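Note to self: the last two entries modelled the partners one at a time, which told us nothing about the interface. This time every component goes in together.
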Amino acid sequence: MPSLPSSPSHDGRLPLYHRIRDTLHAEITAHKWKPGEPLPTEAELAKSHGASIGTVRKAVESLVAAGVVERLQGKGTFIRRPDFQSSLFRFFRFAGADGAPRVPESRILKRDETPMPVTVAAAMNLTVGTRAIRLLRLRSFDGKPVLLEEIFLPRDRFKPLLEIDPCEFGALLYPLYEQYCGVLVTSARETLSAEAASPRHAKLLGLETGAPVIVIERVALALDRKPLEWRQSRGPADQFRYHVEIR
Amino acid sequence: MPSLPSSPSHDGRLPLYHRIRDTLHAEITAHKWKPGEPLPTEAELAKSHGASIGTVRKAVESLVAAGVVERLQGKGTFIRRPDFQSSLFRFFRFAGADGAPRVPESRILKRDETPMPVTVAAAMNLTVGTRAIRLLRLRSFDGKPVLLEEIFLPRDRFKPLLEIDPCEFGALLYPLYEQYCGVLVTSARETLSAEAASPRHAKLLGLETGAPVIVIERVALALDRKPLEWRQSRGPADQFRYHVEIR
DNA sequence: TAGTGGTCTAGACCACTCC
DNA sequence: GAGTGGTCTAGACCACTAA
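The predicted structure of the combined assembly is written out below.
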């Protein structure tokens, strides 16, 4: 019999392992433990949640499946340090001569403040008119452009970015967000589409107008799944390749 | 203690639930039960495999995760009847006015016999020079072309297709494969890319030469993961949209 | 050697489906 | 009411890690 339900805010009819999972997830989201830190042992969790080890195990297993924690036999269960590295390597063949992934250089072409465009606000679940920081960013290998990105960030949360010289942004933005704004991207929703390059995009990417271009629209999310960043990336279609398994 | 290992061909050091899963999967692949039929109950499986119910349950759970069986509370565990419907609706926005998915009409432009091209043979793990049936197929809505497909099938397995009038192929090929060749597609590996339409493709699809086109290369697989069909589909990029969740 | 997660047991009771 | 899968228990022993 389930005893001592320890997640008072939940419907008691939910399975116990489900409630334990939700409680743990909420605690992790609230940074009760930092990334890399261990959770309490299964025995401790069982005791503190008034459940058997098997039930706790089932709860933890679903957190593993969700990518929130990681179990290492003989060591413990750890909060996953997100190695979220954008989807570049999933979608584009950016590899060095040895096949190892290569991060393209990055140049900020423009940084300004605007109201969030309607479509962006909608995708991020923000009210229209929220103030935004907009970045226009060109990424390249050895000076050859490969990716053009337009990025919108809610201004209030990302204000510190306005005070840094864009030349010092570096090749990756997400570490910057973490360092200066205390904001951690852990997942994203992306939509792929394709189009013919507009004259402006073609020029910036070094393509012919009308050449096929892949468009990746991304909403980057925090651990609690709140939208943090909206981004649209365009790259030449001939660099693009994506693999799926379906059934 | 694990007792009576019932999967003699396996390394005894593998976990029992793992061996049970593999045994069940092999039996399903060998058509011990037909799609839609129920597996034995958990209690029966536990007895016949000399394991406890919990262990059998873990094995069955992994088959559920792999999409091979389906559990219905109070009813039983059933071999999944594959509703594999190609990836059209995953990749392209083919919907009617009410938003319901719409299957495009299909016309076979050409059917002939050739040796498997090298790249196709490689993708299907066949020896180069295997004889093939090649189909060229145009799919459209109300006469407007939306997808151009080139299909290669190993001739020996699909011989009956050579004796049917291509006009009677119908809108979907996989039911045809099943009916005439006793071959069931249950999953597929696909690779997406994009290119500028060649003059020939553009003409058949009703596009301008050079317009962006999405290319989907598919290897369709049987339940035992043997390649059955190789297919390359091309469609206008403006119809294309694909959604992924990453972390 | 002590402590962790990984596997496994042999039951119990519950929720659901079907007759 | 009989039979199914769904949840849960309270242990056991094993494999692995680290001191």
